[in-house]
């Protein structure tokens, strides 16, 4: 969550998220932004989405449905904010050992280092994002 220095961790379905020290190896802290639906999905269970619970004024997880309280869009600072309330945002955890994938806005493509043409290695745009070192960026 923005400004907290902690990561959102899935504790149980249909409930509030826990706030833990970030651990890049912890699958319950891994989320994937889906720009086609504006959802942030739990990587371990893509049917579960990050949701904002108005009654609790906190983030939780809920089944992915077409609802504004779990639709997020990128802002100018690189955060993902609720479409209906731009003050409710999350951002990638970044630290020395955290890696992110760089995606094209609105597409499933990722920047990928290692494309070879003209006898040289280049950064290319790969049609899919995959858990490969060539797509990890600091």
Helices and strands in order, then pairings?
Blueprint: E1 7-9, E2 18-20, E3 31-34, E4 39-42, E5 45-53, E6 58-63, E7 72-74, E8 80-82, E9 89-90, E10 110-117, E11 120-126
Antiparallel strand pairs: 1-2, 3-4, 4-5, 5-6, 7-8, 8-9, 10-11
Give the overall form: elongated
Largest sheet: 4 strands, antiparallel
Number of domains: 2
Strand order of the largest sheet: 3-4-5-6
Poorly predicted regions: none
Number of strands: 11
Helix content: under 10%
Series of secondary-structure elements, N-terminal to C-terminal:
EEEEEEEEEEE
Query: What's the CATH first level of the largest domain?
Result: Mainly Beta
* CATH fold descriptor of the largest domain: Trefoil (Acidic Fibroblast Growth Factor, subunit A)
Structural class designation: mainly beta
Specify the number of helices: 0
Mean pLDDT level:
79
- Rounded to the nearest angstrom, the distance between the terminal CA atoms is 19 Å
What radius of gyration results from the CA coordinates? 16 Å
Please give the CATH architecture of the largest domain.
Trefoil
Beta percentage is 35-45%
Protein name: Ricin B lectin domain-containing protein
Organism: Haptolina ericina
